[in-house]
Amino acid sequence: GRPAAGPVYRSIYAKDGLMRLPQEIHSPWDFFSGAVKKYPKNRMLGRRQVSDGKAGDYVWQTYEQVYQKVIQIGAAIRGFGVKPGAHCAIYGSNCPEWVMAMQACNSQGICYVPLYDTLGQNAVEFILDHAEISIAFMQESKIKSIASILPKCTAHIKAIVSFGDVPIELKREVEQLGVSCFSWEEFSTMGEDIQELPKKQKDDICTIMYTSGTTGEPKGVIITNRAIVAGVTTTEHLLQLTDKVVDEYDSYFSYLPLAHIFDQVIGNYCISKGASIGFWQGDIRYLMEDVQVMKPTIFCGVPRVYDRIYTGIMQTSIVVVPKFPPYCVLRHNWGIL
Fold first, then answer.
1. Where do the AMP-dependent synthetase/ligase domain residues begin and end (predicted)?
2. Which pLDDT score is estimated for 302?
3. FRET pair for 126, CA 20 to 30 Å: which of 157, 163, 236, 325?
4. Is residue 232 assigned to a domain?
5. How far, in Å, CA of 100 to CA of 108, rounded?
6. Within 10 A of 229 (CB to CB), how many other CB atoms are there?
7. Which residues are CB-neighbours of 249 under 8 A, at least 6 positions away?
C-alpha cells in the first residue's frame, strides 16, 4: 500500500505563496554596500569606551568609516593570496571587528567560518584543519590558546590577525611556528587598492557553521548567500505583518553569539536598513547595564535570557511580565520613559 503521510502545513504568513528573493541582491555584501550609499553618515557599529577599567558611553563608527576599514581588510586578505571561495575563521565575542572581518570576507567572496569557546580546543583544532582556514581573525585573548594548537594546523593557515594589538612575545611565539601574526591596524595597511571586487552569486558559500561535535567530530553546515538573503528578507516580511519594520533610526543590541545564525541574520537585516548595532562588553554580569547605557530599540533573545530578565524583575517589583516565545524580538521606545 501507499506509505502513510500527514497533512501539509504552511505558515499563515506565507498563505499566498512563498516569497521571491530580490533580484538585485546576490549576497549579504549587497545589503552592506547598499546601506553605505544610502546612509553613509549613520551610526553603524558601537562599543562602550573603557577608561581606567571602567566602561563609559558608547563610541560609534559610521557606515562610511566601517566601509573604508572593511575594504582595507579585504584588500589585505587578497594581498595574502587568499582567493574567492577560500576560507577564513573568526573567533571572539561580538564586537565591531567581528562584523568588519565578516564583511571583509563578504567583499571578496571568501567564506568565513565562526569559532566559539564552547567548541573546546580539540574541536577548534579540527575545524582549523578541516575547513582549510587561510587566515584567522580573533580576539587578542584567544591567540595564546590558538598558538598551543598551531603546530598541528599549519598545513593551511597563513596568518593570525588580532582584533586589537599583539604583545611582542606572543607575536614571536606564533611566527616561530611559521604563521604570520598581525595587529588589526597593522594588517589593515597591508593591502593594495582594489579597483573591482569579485562578483558574487546567490549559490556561493557564504559561511560554514560547525556543530559542537557532541556525537563525534564537529559537522560543518554550509550556508549560501541565498540562505542569508532569504533570512533577512523573511525577517522584513514577518515584521511587516506582525509589528513594524526596522528603519535607519533603530538601534540593535548585539550580544547573542555572532557565531550562530540568529544574530547574523538580525545583524545583516539591521545593516540592510541603515540601523545601528551596539555590542555588549562580553560579560553577562554587565548585560543589563550595557542595555541601559545604549537604550536600543531592538533586543533579541532566547528563553534563557528572558527567564533571567523575568526573574530579576519579579525579585525587585510586583509586575505582570509575559512569557516569551523562542527567538523573540522586542522593540522599545526609550523616549516614553
1. 47-309
2. 85
3. 163
4. yes
5. 12
6. 23
7. 275, 297
Q: Long-range contact list for 49-56, CB < 8 A, 24+ apart?
A: 55/281, 55/286, 55/289, 55/290, 55/293
The dihedrals phi and psi of 42, each to the nearest 5 degrees, come to: -65, 150
Q: Which residues contact 57 (CB under 8 A, 6 or more apart)?
A: 48, 49, 293
Number of domains in the chain: 1
Q: Which amino acid is at 35?
A: A
CATH code for the domain in which residue 94 is found: 3.40.50.12780
- Torsion of the alpha carbons at 322, 323, 328 and 333, rounded to the nearest 10: 20
- Burial group, residue 322, by CB count within 10 angstroms (0-12, 13-18, 19+): exposed
Residue 323 lies in a domain: yes
User: Which pLDDT belongs to residue 312?
Assistant: 76
Residue stretches of the chain with pLDDT short of 50 = 321-325, 334-337
Largest CA distance in the chain: 75
pLDDT at 328: 56
Give the structural domain span for 218.
28-331
DSSP for 123-153, please give it. Answer: HHHHHHHHTTEEEEEE-HHHHHHHHHHGGGS
C-beta contacts of 215-224 below 8 A and 24+ residues apart: 217/123, 217/126, 217/130, 218/119, 218/123, 218/126, 218/127, 218/130, 220/113, 220/127, 220/130, 220/131, 223/261
**pTM > 0.70:** yes
Judge whether 10 lies within some domain: no
Contact 116, 212 (CB under 8 A): no
Cell output for 212: 559542537
The torsion defined by the Cα of 197, 203, 206 and 208, in degrees rounded to 10, comes to -150
3-state DSSP assignment of residue 336: helix
- Residues 195 and 70: their CA atoms lie apart, in Å, by 14
Residue 9 lies in a domain: no
Please tell me the predicted confidence (pLDDT) of residue 155: 86
* Cα–Cα distance, 146 to 138 (Å, whole number): 9
How many residues are listed for the chain in this entry? 337
